[in-house]
Design goal:
Beta-Lactamase, Heat Shock Protein 90, six-stranded antiparallel sheet
Length: 371
């Protein structure tokens, strides 16, 4: 629409206005103003209050779902006496909407850039270090094989397996995280053997716990198992991260117990450890991606800070809850609960560039372990 233009005299009486101004006033202020209407502008307070505070400075205002910009130009006589004003106002609703869309896109782009930087930081630092450890162990075996005793060889192989598993975990977390950012999570929901998943996870990490002289067990449960549906892959990722975190922050001779119970409308899984505990100030940001909680383990184990974020996001996507209780020097208990019939929310189909890149890295890096 063309700009509305209105001429008022020193008494703020409307002397003249164009068709656009008339249409805007009549439609939005329930007036009956016509060109050369000879009306007092002050009679229309809904519009009058939007006068610019001083001549030449535009002012934005909104009326319902519409936005306008108004600007005044003072008219003076030869003696610099104000004899009237020209008021120009235009509908800027579309411009405001476009600006809002651009701002939203900029915010999303900024967030994606932060995620990209986080990912490359993890790849360049956290992933490089464990790979260096694996390569170092392999080189020791190759160069000193004949001089090593059988006991020493087994020890190096055991360390090799442990380092490989922890590195695999990191790559798996990167893969899952990239899928999460690109809405490419698998959304298959199937029947789940919860007890079987827990015992499988504990068995997989038993060697790492044993190497640290930590007792890792599954609490006995005599309840009959109800019918459970959920995403097998996401639940395994949650169990894996909670178990490895417990091992990482538990000292030698410590204990880790994984328990589970079936309640009325959901089931709950808890991982309890007798580890170092989490400081109260860190609990508030435990699941905050922008302020990830990560620190060295009791054996200086490194981490990316992605694990707990993944657990939180996956539990929420399956309609569940996750909570943490911790006391420094005593230990930590992390529990998550999920409904019996789990379904995923807002999950897409495409994996995205970063997901494909990490998948390739995962497959190529660990191909030798399957030979």
């Amino acid at each position: 629409m063309q700009d509305g233009v209105m001429y008022i005299d020193a008494e703020e009486q409307i002397i003249d206005l164009n068709k656009s101004a008339s249409e805007i006033l009549n439609a939005r202020f329930n007036t009956d103003v016509h060109p050369k209407g000879k009306m007092k502008l002050s009679k229309y307070p809904d519009f009058y209050r939007f006068n610019a505070p001083s001549a030449g400075e535009p002012l934005e205002f909104n009326l319902g779902n519409e936005y306008f910009e108004i600007k005044e130009h003072e008219l003076t006589d030869n003696g610099n006496n104000i004899i009237g004003k020209v008021i120009v106002f235009r509908n800027i609703t579309e411009q405001k909407a476009s600006k809002a869309i651009i701002q939203k896109q900029n915010d999303e782009l900024s967030k994606l850039n932060q995620q990209k930087d986080k990912m490359f930081s993890v790849i360049s630092h956290d992933l490089r270090s464990p790979f260096s450890s694996i390569i170092g162990l392999a080189e020791v075996m190759e160069e000193s094989y004949d001089r090593l005793t059988e006991k020493e060889r087994k020890k190096i192989l055991s360390l090799f397996i442990i380092r490989s598993k922890t590195t695999y975990d990191l790559v798996e977390n990167l893969l899952q995280w990239s899928r999460l950012q690109n809405s490419g999570l698998e959304k298959t929901v199937r029947e789940i053997n919860l007890e079987g998943l827990i015992k499988k996870t504990v068995k997989f990490y038993q060697s790492i716990a044993t190497d640290k002289h930590i007792e890792l067990t599954v609490a006995e449960n005599t309840q009959s198992q109800p019918f459970i549906q959920g995403n097998n892959q996401l639940i395994m990722t949650i169990l894996r991260n909670l178990t490895t975190n417990a091992i990482k922050f538990t000292c030698e001779q410590g204990k880790i117990t994984v328990s589970y119970e079936y309640l009325d409308d959901h089931y709950q899984v808890c991982v309890f450890d007798t580890g170092v505990g989490i400081p109260p100030k860190s609990l508030d940001n435990l699941f905050d991606f922008e302020k990830p909680f990560y620190t060295l383990g009791t054996r200086k184990e490194i981490g990316s800070g992605l694990g707990l974020n993944l657990c939180y996001e996956f539990v929420k996507k399956m309609g569940g809850e996750i909570s943490v209780k911790s006391e420094v020097g005593t230990g930590t208990q992390v529990c998550f609960s999920l409904p019996y019939s789990g379904s995923l929310s807002t999950v897409g189909e495409e994996e995205g560039f970063f997901g494909k890149a990490i998948r390739f890295l995962k497959l190529s890096s660990f191909a030798f372990l399957r030979k």
